[in-house]
Amino acid sequence: MSEGVEWAMHCAVILGGLEPGAVLAGKTLAEMHGVSESYLLKHLKALVQGRVLESVPGPRGGYRLARAASEITMLDVVQAIEGTEPAFRCTEIRAQGPCAAPPEACARKACAIKIAMLRAEKAWRDSLRGQAISDIANSLVHDIEPPRFAAMGEWLAERVR
Amino acid sequence: MSEGVEWAMHCAVILGGLEPGAVLAGKTLAEMHGVSESYLLKHLKALVQGRVLESVPGPRGGYRLARAASEITMLDVVQAIEGTEPAFRCTEIRAQGPCAAPPEACARKACAIKIAMLRAEKAWRDSLRGQAISDIANSLVHDIEPPRFAAMGEWLAERVR
Asked: Mean pLDDT over residues B26-36, rounded?
């Protein structure tokens, strides 16, 4: 999984803490997290395409969540960065070789291996779908000592648009 | 995920159907599934290292399951091929930048994002751990028409060691 998932998740949490309509520049998000601005911009673009973020153009523009943090799940963020293709690749090798299953048998029922592998991926997706960005933000805020939380708020207040 | 997972899973199922102690050569497993022998050997080696398979050396040697098919799970096979590292990579970016969490705060509690991402991976592992190779074999046998199952048995009987 790309490092972009970690970056995207942190950005979504920070953007979820802004007042409605407010935005942060990609440069600010990169500086805050100490990551490469050019790499982060690529991931922010993917988040816009995945409808997790909205991009506001112009010199006072930036990024904001596309909807309430309670309505964006971790799965939305992961799939915006990593895509929605299953991790398991079934190339139907049961249809190859001297004991190959005929095409009609393959068409009738998916391979039991594929079914079980995709069932596991569904369990992974269900877990991520059960966690909204707002849930993660609440946990993170709970973990931050109040003085650091206040300093973070001040740093952001000077840069929010 | 590498194509090796699909190949390894099919090989484990086939080897689980042999009489106790019997082996199949890597060449036979490759021919049966219509896949590259050299690539498959690399994956079979990983399965031996992961204690899913045992390798019997010598001109009449080959591969067999390391224990009963009911005691080998899909997770064992996947982890033998893909390793046990989590897919999600946490680089602790909360400890970077102008609002960085201090090292002692990071040591005290893992980042809520990491916790949630790893919880999802545990759900995936739990699902795969709940499926033994024998369960998959039973499903696959159920899906095969009896004449093709008999032909497959004959093909294997000529090659089993």
From this structure: 96
* Phi, then psi, of B63 in degrees rounded to 5: -125, 145
| C-beta separation of A111 from A94 below 8 A | yes
| Per-residue confidence (pLDDT) for residue A143, from 0 to 100 | 87
The answer to whether residue B23 neighbours chain A at the CB level (below 8 Å) is no
Is the Cβ pair B113, A144 closer than 8 Å?
Answer: no
Strand partners, B63: B24, B55
Tokens describing residue B144: 């095969």
**Cβ within 8 Å, pair A140-B97:** no
Q: List CB contacts (< 8 A) between A148 and chain B.
A: 99, 101-102, 105
pTM of structure: 0.92
Cβ of residue A97 closer than 8 Å to a chain B Cβ? yes
Please name which of B18, B16, B12 lies closest in space to residue B161, comparing C-alpha atoms. Answer: B18
Is the distance from CB of A80 to CB of A46 less than 8 angstroms? yes
pLDDT tens-digit series, residues A56-86: 999 999 999 999 999 999 999 999 999 999 9
Instruction: Name residue A54's beta-bridge partners.
Output: A64
HEC per residue, B85-133: CCCCCCCCHHHCCCCCCCHHHHHHCCCHHHHHHHHHHHHHHHHHHCCEH
Q: Which amino acid is at B100?
A: A
Sign for the pseudo-dihedral over CA of B112, B114, B117, B120: negative
CA distance A102 to B114: 45
